[in-house]
Design a protein that fits this description.
The protein has 17 helices and 15 strands. With about 500 residues, it is of the alpha/beta class. The strands form three sheets. The chain has an eight-stranded antiparallel sheet with strand order 8-9-10-11-15-14-13-12, with helices on one face. A hairpin with a 2-residue loop joins strand 13 (about 475-480) and strand 14. It is globular. It starts with a helix and ends with a strand.
């Protein structure tokens, strides 16, 4: 062996060993989504499945928590898979559908329209739960580019080690247990919830300045419809019977009009909740935002009846005599029923952020990071990452609120909404403490400490906040000391004001 050959071999082995080490580290450091924020595992689980589905569902939590593929099979002989993810945006649904066609051609695609209300990427946490699990391909690259926020970059999505390299201090036994293999958390994309948490109240319905659904949503819906037509697939639009977030009649009219113009079926199942038999005292696990398994089975049964009536006569779901397929689904049914039996029906309807309901973590807590943006009401100053017990002080000062909770996708545990007369506070659990994660001003009866109100002009915003913002479309973002103040301006008028955690 020549010296040159030895050198080339040494370099090759070193490079391969380095790449292997980096891959092993990446697999270790990436979140496992087994027991916490299980939604993050949904997209990747599809690739372990046999690809022979009659129906593919795409969309957000209103599909992966409200539809039971096992029920569709058991009652109608329909094979299906839910390619859903937390706050899945319509362009992500489109690219996920493209990805799906790389493996199979379903007879029907069902898209839940709730996410059409979003015109731009929301945040990295939700993006990651959709994009990290996608198999590498040009489709994934396109999906990433369409979804990135201004603060993100392509490389961190293509090489997750760049994003998760600092997780050393957060590693647990779960990371090592599921280093190379992860147990399934879903049932063909359905994330089962067995708890019963009745609906007692809902956040206030906020009037909107503009009810027009974003143009980009219809652009991608056009693309989705054309893609389905080119593959000989029927596209169906649905709105699930979830009560929150609120689905405005104006939005529904636009979807109805679009479906009629483009020859698509659209079913708004909110309108027939009573006919379905949905009872928000027994059929929801988070007070009306999503259905539990008992509500999901009712909704799925109703949907399956429509599908069977509309398409069954064409023989689209005829699997008679396919013993191998029946055996696969019998195994799926057994695991499904076992999880259903072993599930618990416990729930909490009192605000977990309340000092009366949450064990006192002890210690002192500050009102707000005074170098960041904050909001003041009832003589109490609050900001993001403040201790949620500050809301009790507001109540003591005479500011009452309505409480609502829902399972969180971006954080551990619950999204806890405290709706006061003119503002709303969102609380989440971070590092074992209930902290404020966003504050939204609802009307012009309150203002920021700087003096900005809903209805003020752009010039007023600049005069009180300055011109040190970053702009994205109609959104103006001010960042200071880990806090972000976002102002939405429509027709030269402040339409919304929101405090959130800055990711920079």
């Amino acid at each position: 062996m020549t010296r040159k050959t030895k050198l080339i071999l040494t370099i090759t082995v070193t490079v391969l060993a380095t790449l292997l080490l980096l891959w092993l580290l990446q697999m270790l450091l990436m979140p496992k989504y087994m027991t916490e924020i299980r939604e993050g595992a949904l997209i990747s689980e599809y690739y372990d499945e046999i690809k022979n589905h009659d129906i593919i569902f795409v969309g957000d939590c209103e599909v992966y928590e409200n539809i039971s593929p096992v029920t569709l099979w058991e009652r109608y002989g329909i094979t299906s898979y839910i390619r859903g993810s937390a706050q899945q945006l319509i362009w992500q649904s489109y690219y996920i559908l493209q990805d799906t066609y790389r493996y199979e051609t379903p007879k029907i695609v069902i898209y839940n329209v709730q996410s059409m209300i979003y015109a731009e990427p929301q945040n990295e946490a939700y993006n990651r739960m959709t994009l990290d699990g996608l198999a590498f391909s040009s489709v994934k690259i396109d999906a990433i580019r369409a979804s990135m926020t201004e603060e993100e970059n392509l490389a961190s999505y293509l090489f997750p080690l760049l994003r998760y390299h600092s997780r050393w201090s957060d590693l647990s036994a779960e990371d090592f247990r599921y280093w190379f293999h992860r147990d399934p958390v879903s049932h063909n994309g359905y994330l089962m919830q067995t708890a019963v948490r009745p609906m007692e109240s809902l956040p206030a319905v906020k009037p909107l300045d503009d009810y027009t659904l974003p143009a980009i949503s219809f652009e991608y819906l056009d693309k989705m419809a054309e893609l389905c037509r080119s593959k000989g697939t029927e596209l169906i639009l649905v709105k699930s019977p979830s009560l929150y977030p609120h689905w405005y009649d104006e939005w529904d009219a636009q979807i109805t009009e679009y479906a009629q113009k483009n020859g698509l079926r659209y079913y708004n199942f909110l309108e027939v909740s009573d006919e379905i038999g949905i009872d928000m005292q027994t059929d929801t696990y988070d007070m009306g935002m999503h259905l539990n398994v008992y509500g999901a089975e009712k909704y799925t049964d109703y949907l399956g009846g429509i599908l069977q009536e509309e398409f069954g006569s064409r023989g689209l779901f005829d699997h008679t005599g396919d013993e191998a397929l029946a055996a696969v689904w019998e195994e799926k049914k057994e695991r499904y029923e076992q999880e259903k039996r072993e599930g618990t029906n416990a729930g909490q309807t009192e605000p977990p952020g309340s000092a009366d309901n949450t064990p006192d973590p002890g210690g002192e807590y500050e009102e707000h990071p005074h170098d960041g943006y904050y909001f003041e009401a009832g003589g109490v100053e609050i900001s993001v990452l403040c201790d949620a017990r500050l809301l009790d002080r507001m109540k003591e000062a005479g500011l009452d609120y309505k409480y609502y909770e829902a399972q969180s996708c971006a954080y551990q545990g619950l999204d806890q909404f405290y709706t006061f007369d003119s503002f709303e506070v969102l609380v989440n659990t971070i590092d074992g403490r209930n902290v404020i994660t966003s504050i939204s001003i609802l009307d012009d009866m309150v203002e920021t400490p700087e003096g900005l109100r809903i209805g003020d002009s752009y010039d007023t915003m600049v005069s009180v906040l300055g011109d040190g913002y970053t702009q994205s479309s109609d959104l103006y973002r001010y960042v200071r000391d880990g806090t972000m103040l976002t102002v939405l301006i429509k027709n030269n008028s402040v339409s919304s004001i929101e405090y959130t955690i800055s990711e920079t």
